[in-house]
Structures are given as C-alpha cells and as structure tokens.
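Model: You mentioned two targets. I'll fold them one after the other.
Researcher: Yes, keep them separate.
Model: Target one:
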Amino acid sequence: MMVKNQMKNKGIVWGKIWYGFFILYFLNMLVVTTIVLLMNPLWYDINEFLIGMIGVRFNWLAIILTLIFLNFAHSLFLVIFHTIKLAKSGHTKTSIINKILPFIFLAVWDFALNLLISEAGSEIFIVRTQLEYLSPIIWLILIIGISSISPLLYRKFARQLLRVKNEGTKSWKKAGFVFGTIVIAVICIFPFISPFFLVPSTVVQGEIPPKPLLMAHRGASHLAPENTMAAAEQAVIFGAVGIEVDLTISYDGIIVLMHDSTLRRTTDVGTVFPDRFNEPITSFNYSELQQLDAGSWFVDCDPFNTISEGYISKTTAESYRGEKIPTLAEIINFTRDNYLLLDIDSKGPPSGHPYYSSYENILLTQLNNSGLGKNILIGSSQALSLNMTYVTNAFPVDQLISMGSELVNTHHGLTNEQFKSYDLAGIEVMVWTVDSVSRFSQLWCLGVDLIKTNNLHLMGPLTKPFWSMKVIYYEVSWILIIILTPTLSFSIYLLVKKKVKK
C-alpha cells in the first residue's frame, strides 16, 4: 500500500511537472507564431529565400505556416486539457507521444526562427514596429484580463495573508509571501502604467504632419514586373512622385535595370539560355539581354495577388508578356517626360569585368548629362554628381549638417526619437521599404517626407493614417479605462458574492 501511494504521489508530481513544461511549450509556440504573423509584409521575400535554398519554385511558406499553426493549436490543446484535468482531480498524466513531440517541435521551430531572424537582417524591426502599432489593443486586453481575475487574486491574497499570520513568525515564509506579492503586483500593474510610458508613434502632439510622398520601389513592383518600363508606367498611374531603380552593367558596357545578380528569378533565361541559367547578368551582352522576357513570370506567378484581387486587370497583366530589361537611358527619358524623381541604387560589376574600374564614371557621366539635376537622388559626392541631390545614410543631426546631406535615405526601423530629431531639425528623410499600411501610418505621424513602397495601390488612396489620436484624447481614454475596468470588475464580483450569500 505504501509503495502504491509513493508511486501515486510520484505520478502526481510528474504530472504537474509535465503540465508546467506544456505551458512553456505553449508560450514558446505563441512567440514563434506571433513573430511570423507580424512579419507578414516579408512573407514574399521569405518564400523567395526558401525557393533559392531549396531550388524549386513553390509556395513553401504556406506549408510552414500551416505546420506552425497546427503546432500552436497542439500546444494550446495540451495546456487546456491538462488544466481541466488538474482542476477536476488534482492530478494529470500525459501520453508518451505528447512527451516526445513538443521537444521535436521546439527544436525545429526555434532553429527556424533563429535562421529567419538572422536572414531578415534589419527587416526584423518590423516585429517591433508592429507590436508598437498594436500596443493599445494589447494593453486593453491585459487590463481587462487582469481586472477580471483581480477579485480572485485579492481573495487568494487575503487567505494567504491570514495563513502566514497564523503560522507564526517564520521569517522565510514571510519573505516568500512578500516577494511573491511584489512580483504579482508588478506584473499586474505594468499594463496599467505602460500606455503612458510606451506611447505609440500614431499618438501625435498638434496636427498630423503632411502625408509622405510615395516613391515606387523598383517601379510599382507589386503591380508590374519590377525594374521594367511597365512598372515605371504603373508608378505614374498610382501616384508616385518618383521611382527607385537598381542598376548594373552588361558585359559590353550598357547600364541596365536589374536587382538580382542573376536573371533566373525575373526572366526566362532558363529557356533562352539554358546553359547560362545561373550566370551573373554582367556576363551577358546587351543584345543577349534583349532576347529575354522580363514580364511573363509576373503574369504566370501573380506573386503579390494583385492580378487576382483586381488591382491590375487581366488585360493589362497580359500586356506585360515580352517586357524587356530597360536601359538607364530609357528610364532617364521616362523620368524626364513624367517629371519624376529618380532614386539610384547602383550595383557595380564584379572584379574582372571589362568595365569594373570605369563603371561609376560611366554611370555618373550619363546621369550628369541627363539634365535631370536635383531630380536624381544618389549617394555620391563626386564632382560629376554635384548638381544632383546628395543622399546619405542615417547619422546624427550635426554630422548630417556638416556632411552637406540633402536627404537621408534609411531603413524604416530607426527609433521614433531618431525620426523626430530629423523632423525637428528640418532634415528631409526618405525610408525604405514600407509595405504595410500600419508602418506607413506610423511614419506619417513621425513626419517622414518620402516613403519607398512596393504597395502603391494600398498607400496611395490613404487620406489619413489608418489610426491616429491626439495625445490629450489618448491619455484621457486610458485614464477612464484604468478607472472603469477594475471598478466594473469588482462591482460584478461583489454583486455575485452578495447573491450567493442570499
């Protein structure tokens, strides 16, 4: 009998240990799932990374997302199931499968998450900015949740306090009780004070700044094949004030538009030149590049669902077939004819290329002779570019002024304080690459001047930030929520308690 009781007690202890592990498993999967969801604007790029790694064009991310959500559901089920078992009988046990699977899932998804974060680079800041954007909803949920359980916490606290008093003056028990009370109090108080210290960037002092001007990243690259004349035309149609282009040079010295180092993603090079599928674009002569179709891939894949969702008609999409890789001369003429800004992202040829040493001089000479002047945005301070707009990276205000910077070109992941310092100093800022309406709204409220985006069709129609609030209304709203929510919760608790006594 004694052995049976010992085994039973041991089983109860291990059941509670496994229950604690399942809670950790659930929290881990919650973090993984949340980060992946917040990185929604990067899903296409993530899938392209997976395609490049695996070597087969397929929607691999859809499979991964499905598996992540299934694992999250599994972890949630384990917590709920064992919570109910513990509440009913005071003990629980789990199957051998559920003792093994969580360890496998944790290893796989934590490794995948670390790989994703390392490959995402500066784009991982989208997680922080999305959390900031959603923070009012998060704080509200936590405040309602804590207020709802606060009567129960208070009752438990009163019982524990009475127990500590009745058990004498054991200092370690008192210390443990005090420490536990402080920890729980801090956890509970945090959501109530956080809205006043972690104020979202969409809460503004005074009037909302003017809407940022739109720069079409690689042309309107979600509406037409990137870095083509069709993309430039769609940029004008959807209201961009300028276009950003990626430049490189052919083997025979013609500067052309192309982002990738190879042609395999955005052309039919595998069909036209099957033996040169993985060769760099800089190894092709211009006449060879002109044999390629740089538009059909976009029509066939509809990579951003802009055709299926009706932003681009099927007739317009079909016209993209046969689109050619344009030259710098063509885009200069288009920019001039449509009074656009031209943002230059130059990728020179590798060493050993015939034009390796002369590439920059060829580029600057062609730009200088274009007559576009200040409408060219370029990160060069050489003599040939003195009549163009000098673009620099993000540096402290004093350093930018001493450098003679005319425009800061930076990733959108800078802190709110950095953006505000530039706005107060009157320094114009252009950020890249913003594809979510939420981040666009934040940067709008922070006073950013120009925003590079692939999603002109989403940003263009906006007449105001998706949500914004004056600081006085924000603070008053939170004061009312913080007063009313706990008051309502305790009122309901006292009312129910009074009815139970009757």
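Model: Target two:
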Amino acid sequence: MTQRPILLDIPDSFESARLILRAPRPGDGAALNAGVVESLEELRLWMPWAASAPTVADSEAVVRGAAAKWLKREDFMLLLWRKDTGELVGGSGMHRIDWEVPTVEIGYWVRTSLAGQGYISEAVNAITHFAFETVGAHRVEIRCDERNLRSAAVARRAGFDLEGILRHEARHHLTLELRDTMVFAQVRALPNSSKATDI
C-alpha cells in the first residue's frame, strides 16, 4: 500500500437499515459495560476479554483506548446502536489489520437480550461493504472457534467462504484445552478476474 494509513480519510460512523455503527467515544463506557455485564455468561465462553466482569471504569478505558487506535488506524472497534431506541446492541469491528494487503478481520458479539434478531448479520454485511469500499480492503476474514456454531452461522449468512480449519491453533482461555479455529473469508476480485465478490 503506497499511502500511509494515518492519512486515510475514514469516517468514524456509518449505518445499516436498523443500526448506527460507529467508533467508540469517551463516555461510551457505561453503555458498553451494561451490555457486557448483561451478556457475560455467553461471552465468556468465546471471548478472552470477558473472562470476568469489568467495572464501568474498565469499560471506559477500553473505549478511550479504542478511540485512539481508530485515529492511528491500528484497529477499528465499532459499537452497534439501534436507530430507534439508541440502545447498544453489541460490538464489532475490523481487527488484525494488515495494511500491506490490506486485510482485516471482523469480530462481533451481541448483548443477550437482543440475540436472535439478525442484528449481527446486518452489522457484518455493513462492515464488509465498508471494509471493501471505504477502507480499501482486498480481503476480509472472520475467525471463530469450531464449536462456536452461532458465530460460524453468521459468517455463512454473510456470504463468507470457509477456507479451512486451523487445527489445535490455540488454547481455550478458560479450560486451556487445545481448540480448532475456522477461517472464513471474502476477497475483492482483482482487475480482469473472472471471480467477483458480492459486496
């Protein structure tokens, strides 16, 4: 990539049909904390950062650190807000950025009270489009534990192809058992390529 990432003009918010997706801002910690604490039982199975309940100050530190990383183009954490109520739905973002490709990895979680309503699938579709069209990504990945069937279902619904399974790729953060990681991806078609990607 010829242009320095810090010079890229990347808006810090965008929308889907029901959601406002935006970068964290100072003051978002209380809303984030409420969503995480409500959903801790489900989150802690898959998310190392949810192994124990955060304080509001912990969550505020997370959003402020994420805001700084967004400005430096190091990581793009996103908070998902309902348009109709302003309620925090969950979190997502574009992580593990490699600007040489560029490639990003989408991660996501939904608060327990709003699960099963299609918000995360909607967010992933919007973020994928944003990654290709605005960030300039050529590859977008989703990785999840092979046993995380709901996460894998989101990837498949969003049109991501399962490229492979990394066997014994990591240890579970709670049990320390070896786990396998599923790798899903979409890629932007190169010029003159016969295989196009729907974005």
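Researcher: Noted. Anything on target two?
Model: The chain has a mean pLDDT of 94.
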